[in-house]
Write a structure and sequence with these properties.
Oligomer: single chain
Shape: globular
Number of strands: 5
Distance between the termini: 43 Å
Low-confidence stretches: 1-14
Strand content: 25-35%
Strand order of the largest sheet: 1-2-3-4-5
Structural class: alpha+beta
Mean pLDDT: 75
Length: 171
């Protein structure tokens, strides 16, 4: 368990919520997979068809990554015994400078009812601390037009700079 940001606790104490953050464990995997269904519901039909969620396959992959891959980072926020948000990430070499490591934020989500409570800020902090401890020199994130409302603003508040757009073609 990791305790972060007293201001978050103060906000949530008013709602009688016990909150803690930390690295994801094997026990968290099924809850993360369940939340991914919420992600797909929120971002809509277009993305659901281009990024189909095979829960069984994803569950096995995520378990394997958490247990066996030291370049994989998974972080969760718990409230009242339930996961209310997560970050899935990995480390990779910079293609343009092989001496540099980049932390890649693969996916993140916070349940809508907790989005004004500083949960994303604290998850980002855990992720960024892990990236620094892993000797990453930068962090890369993708923001899609289909991302939940407010995701771009969350990146900006966390100090990220928007500098490009992704193009995708299904083949």
């Amino acid at each position: 368990q990791e305790v972060i940001a007293e201001e978050t606790f103060k906000v949530l104490e008013e709602r009688d919520v016990q909150l803690w953050y930390g690295p994801a464990t094997i026990a968290d995997v099924r809850h993360i997979v369940r939340l991914m269904g919420d992600v797909m519901d929120e971002i809509g039909e277009i993305v659901r068809h281009s990024l189909p969620l095979d829960k069984r396959s994803f569950h096995a992959t995520l378990m394997n990554e958490i247990v066996n891959n030291p370049t994989f980072g998974a972080f969760v926020a718990h409230a009242d015994g339930k996961i209310i948000g997560y970050i899935l990430s990995s480390l990779t070499q910079n293609w343009f400078n092989m001496n540099q490591i980049i932390a890649v934020l693969r996916q993140w989500y916070v349940k809508p009812e907790y989005r004004k409570d500083g949960i994303a800020k604290n998850l980002f902090r855990l992720f960024e601390d892990w990236a620094k401890e892993s000797n990453a020199t930068s962090i890369q994130c993708s923001h899609f037009m289909s991302s939940p409302k407010g995701a771009g603003a969350t990146f900006k508040r966390a100090g990220y700079t928007h500098y490009s757009n992704d193009y995708v073609k299904e083949i």
